[in-house]
Amino acid sequence: MKTRLRIPHVLAVEVPRSHVVRVTFDDGLVREWEFMPGRHEGTVFEPFDDPDFFRQARVDPESRTVAWPNGVDLDPIVLHGDLAAANGGHFRDVTDVTDARQLG
Fold it and tell me: CB neighbours (10 Å) of residue 6?
């Protein structure tokens, strides 16, 4: 029997410092992810190099994950830490506590 992976929902997103999003999930988990600027010329991630654009991160009410005005949204399963990103190099986990539920 296969176990179904629960898709976590993002409740809130903040940008506490340049190129970092703090993501709060519906199970109480809080994680921080840092965008790695400067390596995305010609991709959908290129606008993220601009800190003003990056600060426009929001929770998309339909997909219930982190999204930006250019249509980029991030996989909530990866943000939650349940699976590794398939195309690494855009973001890295910078959550700095063992139990991320203690953030905030």
Answer: 11
**Is residue 2 in some structural domain?**
no
Pairing between β-strand 10-17 and β-strand 30-35 as defined by DSSP bridges: unpaired
Number of domains, the chain = 1
Task: Give tens-digit pLDDT for 9-64.
Answer: 999 999 999 999 999 999 999 999 999 988 888 889 999 999 999 999 999 999 99
Q: Element (H or E) spanning 30, and its range?
A: strand 30-35
Q: Check residue 47 and give left, alpha or beta (phi > 0: left; psi -120 to 50: alpha).
A: alpha
The CATH number of residue 55's host domain is: 3.30.2020.10
